[in-house]
Amino acid sequence: MSQPMLLAQVEQVEAQLGQPLPADYRAFLLDDANEDAGEWGFFIAPEDFLYCELDWTKDFPFSLEHPVDDSPLREFYKRAVHAEKVEHDSNKYNALYDESFDYMVENFLKPMERGIVYVADNGCCMYSFLVLRGEAAGQVWWCEVDAFSVTIEPHFRPFTNEPLSFTEWQFFDKYRYRLTAARENLRNLWEYSWTYPLESKEGRSAIMAMLIEEKLTGMTKEEIEKVTCVDDIPESAMFLDQFSDEWHPVRNGIVFPASTM
């Protein structure tokens, strides 16, 4: 798409929104280097990715202060399970399923698609989207919906639990691993099975992320990309452990997915 055509489409959406797009997202769209990126495609051809139809004339209705409450769907689920397991009434189960699905669409799915644009298909009926207007404008959220349950909430920054902006979400989506020096910081990981060697691609991603965030010294980007064993990491390379706020040798680091924190 030519730059004038793309700019015209951006301005058309902003006219519907009644306000500019978030600045970082707007700059991303108008950068020719991003034309092949998946996030760009969701904006150019939104009809290829949606459950319903986006409505850019209304506010996204949810926020940290006004979170999603899917308890009505859970009540439908309890009644449906009772119908199936206790009453052995498949017709009643199917009727409750349909009623719950319709309730979900009207009360969650359609409201969710107000004032947003999708930015990623995360698989298994999960999507990430950028809020364009409303209390949560500028934040990236994710959703997973079905007839009996709904999750609609922000992507959070590791450690601080602050909602991510579009640029931050892109960064953490690309560099999704981090380092810590203490295994006890990872108690919530299943028997630490989600840790990775420093020389793995996950390890290189973690080290690179720390470098980009200026929380690592003693290594260059080129040195990180060439790491194939621990001995490739200089003994003098240090990283700032965000749990303890102390510096530790990179060689002593444990690699884990930031999304688990």
From TrEMBL:
Residues 8-159 form the Knr4/Smi1-like domain. SUPFAM superfamilies: SMI1/KNR4-like. Pfam families: SMI1_KNR4. This is Knr4/Smi1-like domain-containing protein. It comes from Corynebacterium matruchotii ATCC 14266.
